[in-house]
Amino acid sequence: MNGKLSKDEGICFAQQLFSALDFLHREGLVHGQISNKLVHYDGNAGTLKLSEWFVNTLTDFGDFAGTNFRQSIKYSAPESVVKTKLTLAKRGHEASSVAAAVTQTLGVGKTFEELDPALRKILEITTSHQPRDRPTAREVLDLLECPKNEFPQISLFSNISNVNIPENHSVRDIIEALGHNDAYYFWRLSSNGLNSELERSGLIQKTVGISKVELIPSTAKSSGYNANGAGDGNSHTQTEIDLTVLEGTLQSVDTIAANPVISIDIDQSKLSPTVRQINEERRLPLSIRESSILYQFSRTLIYRRLLSGYPHTLEGIIEELKIQTKIDIPPNLRRYIWSALLQVSGDTREMYRRINKCAIRETDRQIDVDIPRCHQYLEVIASPEGARKLKRVIKAWLVTNPGLTYWQGLDSLTVPFLVLHYDREDLAYASMSNFIPKYLNGLFQRDNAAVIQEYLAIFQQLICYHEPELANHLLDMDGQAFVPDLYAIPWFLTMFSHVFPIKKIFHLWDKLLVYDSSLPLFIAVAIMIRLKRQLMTFSFNDCILSFSDMPDIDVDDIVTQSTVLHRDTPPSCSYRVHQPDFADTSLLAIHKEDIDLQARRMERLPIISLSDVCRLNRIKSSTFIGNFTGEEFEIVDDIENLATIERLLIVDCRDEADFKTGTLPGAINLPSKTSFEDPTSEVPISTLRPSLSSIKLISARGSRIIVVAGKDTRDGQAFAERLLSLGYPKLTILHGGFNLLSSLGATLELPDLREDS
Amino acid sequence: MSSAAGSSTPTSIAAQKAYDYLFKLLLIGDSGVGKTCLLFRFAENSFNPTFISTIGIDFKIQTVEIDGKRIKLQVWDTAGQERFRTITTAYYRGAMGILLVYDVTSKKTFENITNWLKNIEEHAAEGVEQLLVANKCDQEDKRVISEEQGQLLAVHHGIDFIECSAMTGENVREAFYRMARRVKTKHESKESAQRADGSKSVKILSDPGSPLGKSLGNCC
């Protein structure tokens, strides 16, 4: 900012600069290096910009950069020459620096008396000998009679608006329309990153260190950052980012691509080649999709349109948001999409500000021990500021959840939210506050034994359900059992955030957030299936070692498979008493009161509710319990046609006499006592005794879900465990058995015995 | 004592597995005293100050040779946070040796050793070998618990004591070897007693039953 200015312009610029300073101070930032070299004039807008405002904050006043930043002496308050660090409390320094910069520019060739009186007054008070007499930037603004310009609160979604690209757009129009954040994100995808750009323009040099390549700012060596302060001509260099590659890629964005439609049911032939290309990229692996500018561009436009009205439009967009999220999430918008999926809203800043995050608590020692070991490969988390932020967010959560407590692992769980919202602790806090009740219900209670034991037991049951062969192997390894207690506790207690690096956690949670809280169980099963081939050859010792460091697995694949498992498993099979969002509340569903947690831990196979049995075999629930008012009826079909589409085979394992008095529609009878051969020396396990019913069971193996219905759950378990040892997959136990049915007053059906006779 | 080899011939399995004994050892002690680092130093001979915290349980296996016998040490590394106690005490079952670890720079971790000893009494097999391990002995300037204090506590409870440093590696091997040797001696004397009884000799030793019992979940 050089050259002469008229008086009005001068005061106007002084106002802008003090206003910039006021903004920084309100945001808790100290510039610390103000000089007129850092003031830039935007000729088009007629406004001033203050640069390098972040340098001191990023480097803790030069400490982290290994150099000692000093303000140019010309603009410094006297005492700041002695003290190297300017704290916010001493921000009076800064007003004097701004005043000096303004005066130097406006007052070229003038004596003090010739200056504008307003400016003279500011100069006088801001350069007062006593630091405490100097005004703050806000007070200077008041003197300048500057209208109180209330800065708009930076709200959660202020960066999120619909991207309006004009009809006959140029490439620059697109970049303009995207705004800084997204434009920068796409530029990064198009380039080798900021470092190589700075290197190209000679601002940094690459030197090879002993263990890695280090980047040393060459400016640190130039005079501007040296204590001698002899001229600062070269230090504040600006360089223009090269947009050629990005512009080249965005060149192909046509009007259709610039206005993507959310609905997928459109005639593909009418689409432009660019849009067809984008649509085809959807089938590529996630890592490739994430590096494709055009694809990410298209996804960004869709999400920004969806989110532009959040939170007011949540109800209208949530379903579409879920559909889109099931495809993928553009990393640049993840923080907004997650917040919307977690339904974060309200004045989170104020809410967070009011929480006492400083009070000393008994869990502090544990947190202090854990944070230096938590995701330390992430620079932001490993930094001193990162550690402070992490601790504050955890403590805020603890204060606001008095019934819950700090378990090791809560630190890992907080990190993904903090990484996304590094500049907004309040949102990290608000996000995790909504995440935990949904996906980690009960796990952070002081005594979580019941919750965790049930979780692990159901996980083990689901392995038995989907992979009986693997389950049999793991449960009997030379007399030792490789049970989930030995490897899966951190999986569920931290939603895998303790066992995967951040990038994998992001991809895993991207999908988790659109499913109910049973998905983690299926993710765990998918991991076991992925490792099955190895595990089948492993001894107990190999197993415990292999899970000691989580094997390197493709999380995207795992999650995709888990969603398939989730879809193909009757919901009641993964039912947990502590599951907060179990959807089925009908009369024939499983109810908390009917579950004996102690007994449950001993059960090898999952239970299925009568409600699921009805739904899957298309039996009217009224068949059993009459026409209760308020009871939801499942699909009503013509019973005649059902035989061919049955997905379940119901095995009534009671004695024949009981069976004949009434059973479930379509059930076959295989009495426990008579259906198995006794083990012999040749065949050491008991196999099925041949009969018409056992043939039906054998032919259903693998293709249908087998529902074993006994007198009660235990009776069914005993029978099903024998089938499990024969390697039968998809085994379930009718919850409560016939005893529960009769207690509900259900009417049973007389079996059709013609085939058996 | 059950045999890992079941009813098949123990010797052939032993040859195939290339070890004579399998011992289960347990590491317990407060969070952050360096249990995982000690184990990592022992198994990999390196040091990483930013190890992630252990949740639930972690493992390492290292084979050592003592008096011509190859001994496979299966070391169970437990979570230190007091809260995990209900979970971790389930892992005590079948442990033949327990290393109790404290940090010489933290008084609290030393004081808590008494609580850990109580846990052993309640949950571990009677007569399990115990060793009190003082870690971080390289940090002399931060030390608050002297070697004598450690020694005194060990004597008081009638257990062995060693000071070591996972960072420098000092005495780490020694600690595990000492433990292995004691378990071996005890095991061999039991074995010979059994032989004298005329009962069938069992070569390979695994912890009795499954880690958490043969059936699912009857652990706590």
TrEMBL record, chain A:
Keyword set, alphabetical order: GTPase activation
Any one GO MF annotation of this record: ATP binding
Rhodanese domain ranges (all copies): 644-750
Transmembrane regions listed in the UniProt entry: none
Top-rank taxon, per record: Eukaryota
Alphabetical list of Pfam families matching this protein: RabGAP-TBC (PF00566), Rhodanese (PF00581)
PROSITE patterns: PROTEIN_KINASE_DOM, RHODANESE_3, TBC_RABGAP
InterPro entries (alphabetical): Kinase-like_dom_sf (IPR011009), Prot_kinase_dom (IPR000719), Rab-GAP-TBC_dom (IPR000195), Rab-GAP_TBC_sf (IPR035969), Rhodanese-like_dom (IPR001763), Rhodanese-like_dom_sf (IPR036873)
Listed SMART domains: RHOD, TBC
All copies of domain Protein kinase, residue ranges: 1-152
Protein name per Swiss-Prot or TrEMBL: TBC domain-containing protein kinase-like protein
Naturally occurring in which organism (per UniProt): Oikopleura dioica
UniProtKB/TrEMBL annotation, chain B:
Biased composition (Basic and acidic residues): 187-200
Main location per the UniProt record: membrane
Pfam families in the cross-refs: Ras (PF00071)
Any GO CC annotation of this UniProt entry: plasma membrane
InterPro entries cross-referenced by the UniProt entry: P-loop_NTPase, Small_GTP-bd, Small_GTPase, Small_GTPase_Rab
Locations listed in the record: Cell membrane; Cytoplasmic vesicle membrane
UniProt keywords, alphabetically: Cell membrane, GTP-binding, Lipoprotein, Membrane, Nucleotide-binding, Prenylation, Protein transport, Transport
A molecular function (GO) term: GTP binding
Any single biological process term in GO: protein transport
Region of interest called Disordered, as start-end residue ranges on this chain: 187-220
Membrane topology: Lipid-anchor
Alphabetical list of SUPFAM superfamilies matching this protein: P-loop containing nucleoside triphosphate hydrolases
Similarity comment text for this entry: Belongs to the small GTPase superfamily. Rab family.
Protein name: Ras-related protein Rab-13
Originating species: Oikopleura dioica
